[in-house]
Amino acid sequence: MIAARAFRGKKTAVFGLARTGISAARALLQGGAEVVAWDDAQAKRNDATAVLGAKVVLADLATMDWTKISVLVLSPGVPLHFPALHPVVRAARDAGCEVIGDVELFFRARRANFPETKLVLVTGTNGKSTTTALIGHLVREAGLAVQVGGNIGTAALDLEQLGPNGVYVLEMSSYQLDLTGPTGADVAVWLNITPDHIDRHGSLSGYVAAKRRIFDGLAQNGVAVVGTDDVHGLDMCDALRASGVQVNPVSVAHAPVKPGVYVQDGVLYDALSGEAQKVMDLCALTRLPGAHNWQNAAAAYAAALALGISRARIVGGLESFAGLAHRMEEVGRVKGVRFINDSKATNADATARALACYDGVYVILGGVPKEGGIDSLAQFFPRIRKAYLIGQAADAFAGTLEGRAPYQKCGDLANAVSAAARDADQEDEAVVLLSPACASFDQFENFEARGEMFRKLVSGHAAKSMSGSAV
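The structure corresponding to this sequence follows.
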């Protein structure tokens, strides 16, 4: 736990008591602040009381006298700008109260108390969790102390305080970046941009603007690692260079890029000095399959180099990376059928990256659909042996697939796994892929819960298969 001492002796408010809200409240308390907190959900308030006890005052912030409050720490899940300013946020701002997020508290604590540590931030529409975990792995394999968190795993303020040679690697969502000021990052990684979270940011430009904040206030000699395989990355690369920032471009689709890091025909090249040098064959990394993971690996390589890690150590770390749970994760193999958990694919672009890895696949799709549904997956429909549709998106996805790929409406994940396993068992070396192209909130608390249920169902199928029972 990292103490948030910036508001010692002052009255603070926390709105939203999920993982990051409770973390912020604890950090503020440890830093000597008075904390008033609230969540509209009774269950969340009960959870906060169980964790924080009577040290935090629970009070409806909609009725708060905001002239008495120094700062509002807002959960990243609470609407900030669009579709409308949340009433609690409006009341706080009308009173001149600062509105920030838990990661901003972390940034301030780091600047004040352990500025000698290194900070790496990672954002993008797709691949940021894998890249964040991969950078953390490379740092750890290089023998350095590292803490990994933010939008992945552990909340930023729940990480351990590190010494002078320590490295923090944080995944940053657009929601979190909306609530930060200057980051002070030593390395900021921008992977890619495709339309996402438009319901939260109002437009693609609003989404890009939030992502852009990752480069605000880079440390002196800070490095921007920018994926240039889409127009937003290219524009960002040019804008950062024009402002004097050191930019290390990364490309897979537009290779070669000089100076920069790029992947061509599955081979990673380092051309940061201008002359391209072969680093390694990424096709050999079975835990990082597909071109999308090549971009993740190339970005992680560039970030690790910026931290001063040697090429030899980076290559060793890439080779030993075990992969990320819920992202192209093989969770079982039954009679030649591979079961792949890609629950983290919460939009069509992420699912496209998974489908591109297989020539024929039995894919489970559905949940809470994003804007555009799965229309953009049309080029991959010939790869689909059959689709199994679940959740709110089932009817809409069926309409998109009609006459273009076989499908079956299954309702829930259990029925989908059962049907997919039965169909795939008729084929040698088949793949059953959970890559929903949707958020999970209609049937699961989050994508992790969805992925864990898939793992449990596959395990149950494997046990029945070994005992000779039918699925």
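Residues 418 and 471 are 6 Å apart (CA to CA).
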